[in-house]
Amino acid sequence: METPVPPRNSIPVIDTPEHHLGAILLVLLTRAPDDATLKAAVHLADNAAIASWALRPDALVTLSVEQYLQLLHYTAAPQVLDLALYLGGDRTQIRTLMDHIAQHVDDVLAHYPPPTRQA
What we know:
The radius of gyration is 17 Å and the shape is elongated. It is mostly helical. It has helices at 21-31, 35-54, 65-86, 94-111. It has a domain at 31-111.
Protein backbone atom coordinates (compact mmCIF):
# COMPACT_ATOMS: atom_id res chain seq x y z
CA MET A 1 0.00 0.00 0.00
CA GLU A 2 1.45 3.33 -1.07
CA THR A 3 1.35 6.39 1.09
CA PRO A 4 -0.51 9.15 -0.73
CA VAL A 5 1.61 12.12 -1.71
CA PRO A 6 0.28 15.33 -0.23
CA PRO A 7 -0.85 17.89 -2.80
CA ARG A 8 1.78 20.31 -3.93
CA ASN A 9 1.67 23.56 -2.00
CA SER A 10 0.23 26.28 -4.20
CA ILE A 11 1.62 29.15 -2.12
CA PRO A 12 3.99 31.22 -4.26
CA VAL A 13 7.67 31.49 -3.53
CA ILE A 14 8.62 34.89 -2.16
CA ASP A 15 12.22 35.74 -2.97
CA THR A 16 13.32 37.39 0.26
CA PRO A 17 16.81 38.42 1.34
CA GLU A 18 17.76 36.97 4.70
CA HIS A 19 17.79 40.35 6.44
CA HIS A 20 14.07 40.80 5.59
CA LEU A 21 12.84 37.37 6.74
CA GLY A 22 11.62 38.64 10.10
CA ALA A 23 9.77 41.56 8.54
CA ILE A 24 8.20 39.34 5.86
CA LEU A 25 7.07 36.90 8.54
CA LEU A 26 5.57 39.77 10.52
CA VAL A 27 3.71 41.01 7.41
CA LEU A 28 2.35 37.51 6.75
CA LEU A 29 1.31 36.99 10.37
CA THR A 30 -0.27 40.44 10.59
CA ARG A 31 -2.16 40.32 7.30
CA ALA A 32 -2.90 36.56 7.56
CA PRO A 33 -3.81 36.22 3.88
CA ASP A 34 -5.51 33.16 2.48
CA ASP A 35 -3.71 31.32 -0.32
CA ALA A 36 -5.57 33.10 -3.12
CA THR A 37 -4.89 36.56 -1.68
CA LEU A 38 -1.22 35.76 -1.14
CA LYS A 39 -0.88 34.49 -4.71
CA ALA A 40 -2.62 37.57 -6.08
CA ALA A 41 -0.48 39.90 -3.95
CA VAL A 42 2.78 38.27 -5.01
CA HIS A 43 1.67 38.39 -8.64
CA LEU A 44 0.73 42.07 -8.27
CA ALA A 45 4.07 42.85 -6.62
CA ASP A 46 5.99 41.07 -9.39
CA ASN A 47 4.09 42.87 -12.14
CA ALA A 48 4.40 46.26 -10.43
CA ALA A 49 8.14 45.75 -9.95
CA ILE A 50 8.67 44.91 -13.62
CA ALA A 51 6.53 47.85 -14.73
CA SER A 52 8.52 50.09 -12.35
CA TRP A 53 11.73 48.88 -13.94
CA ALA A 54 10.42 50.07 -17.31
CA LEU A 55 9.90 53.53 -15.77
CA ARG A 56 13.05 53.53 -13.63
CA PRO A 57 14.98 56.76 -13.09
CA ASP A 58 17.77 57.70 -15.48
CA ALA A 59 20.33 56.97 -12.76
CA LEU A 60 19.36 53.29 -12.95
CA VAL A 61 18.93 52.98 -16.71
CA THR A 62 21.90 50.59 -16.94
CA LEU A 63 20.28 48.05 -14.61
CA SER A 64 18.76 44.97 -16.17
CA VAL A 65 15.33 43.92 -14.97
CA GLU A 66 16.95 41.21 -12.82
CA GLN A 67 19.32 43.73 -11.21
CA TYR A 68 16.47 46.15 -10.56
CA LEU A 69 14.41 43.38 -8.94
CA GLN A 70 17.38 42.40 -6.79
CA LEU A 71 17.76 46.02 -5.65
CA LEU A 72 14.07 46.21 -4.86
CA HIS A 73 14.05 42.90 -2.99
CA TYR A 74 17.14 43.92 -1.03
CA THR A 75 15.77 47.32 -0.01
CA ALA A 76 12.00 47.08 0.21
CA ALA A 77 10.64 43.52 -0.02
CA PRO A 78 8.51 43.69 3.17
CA GLN A 79 7.03 47.08 2.35
CA VAL A 80 6.09 46.06 -1.19
CA LEU A 81 4.52 42.79 -0.06
CA ASP A 82 2.66 44.54 2.76
CA LEU A 83 1.06 47.06 0.39
CA ALA A 84 0.28 44.35 -2.18
CA LEU A 85 -1.51 42.39 0.55
CA TYR A 86 -3.28 45.51 1.80
CA LEU A 87 -4.50 46.07 -1.77
CA GLY A 88 -5.73 42.47 -1.80
CA GLY A 89 -3.66 41.68 -4.89
CA ASP A 90 -6.10 43.78 -6.93
CA ARG A 91 -4.55 44.20 -10.38
CA THR A 92 -6.39 47.48 -10.89
CA GLN A 93 -4.23 48.92 -8.11
CA ILE A 94 -0.94 48.29 -9.91
CA ARG A 95 -0.22 52.01 -10.28
CA THR A 96 -0.54 52.51 -6.53
CA LEU A 97 2.05 49.81 -5.94
CA MET A 98 4.29 51.15 -8.72
CA ASP A 99 4.24 54.60 -7.09
CA HIS A 100 5.14 52.98 -3.76
CA ILE A 101 8.06 51.16 -5.39
CA ALA A 102 9.23 54.35 -7.10
CA GLN A 103 9.28 56.12 -3.73
CA HIS A 104 11.45 53.38 -2.22
CA VAL A 105 13.83 53.55 -5.19
CA ASP A 106 14.00 57.35 -4.85
CA ASP A 107 14.80 56.95 -1.15
CA VAL A 108 17.61 54.53 -1.97
CA LEU A 109 19.03 56.94 -4.56
CA ALA A 110 18.83 59.82 -2.07
CA HIS A 111 20.92 57.87 0.43
CA TYR A 112 23.18 56.04 -2.03
CA PRO A 113 23.58 58.03 -5.25
CA PRO A 114 25.06 56.09 -8.12
CA PRO A 115 28.65 56.93 -9.03
CA THR A 116 29.15 59.44 -11.77
CA ARG A 117 31.21 58.56 -14.80
CA GLN A 118 34.58 60.19 -15.11
CA ALA A 119 35.42 61.31 -18.62
